Amino acid sequence: MTTTSTPPAHDWKADVELLFEQLQHIDGKAEIVDGRIVLMSPTGVWPSLVSLRIASALMRYERQSRHGVAVGDNAIFRVNLPHRESFSPDAAYFVGQLAKMGPFEGAPVFAVEVRSAGDYGPRAERLQADKRNDYFACGTQVVWDVNLLSREVIRCYRASEPETPLVFGPDDIAHAEPAVPGWTVPVRELLPEDWALPEKS
Length: 201
Known about the structure:
24% of the residues lie in helices and 25% in strands. It is α+β, with helices and mostly antiparallel strands and 201 residues long. The relative contact order is 0.14.
């Protein structure tokens, strides 16, 4: 789980270019939030495998559709909100101009956030909801909240109905409409081989 500190008192927007220069040299995953570079905790085995499998499934769609690009973990998406300048989702799909060696300019149409061990509890839920709202404010159409400790493996939030997610379980066929038109993937194909349905509490 990431943490943030109190925003600086001065107008940090003047320092954005410096922040991005620093961000691209950080050894690890981070985002620019509230004028700070916020480091993100390393992930575990299951979240890492699942984010890679989602990106791989999106790559197959990319090759077939020839519209947009599949994006793996740790990419930088540059945005412009009053309190946020970047995203770094666990997987994504992007439609737009590509900046070669620089960050993606703008938000992805589809973003995936796979929960790690620290992404649980009331504070984590608030942070997840705030981040989804940021995605939608930047133009993202669909955000997946992937929870590997729940029977509701994927909660699919859409900008058109942000408070009413679709839920995909392990035996369902998931999608990211309307962000990735026609793309579907069996949830079971995304799960690690040793994944087991959590016992009912």
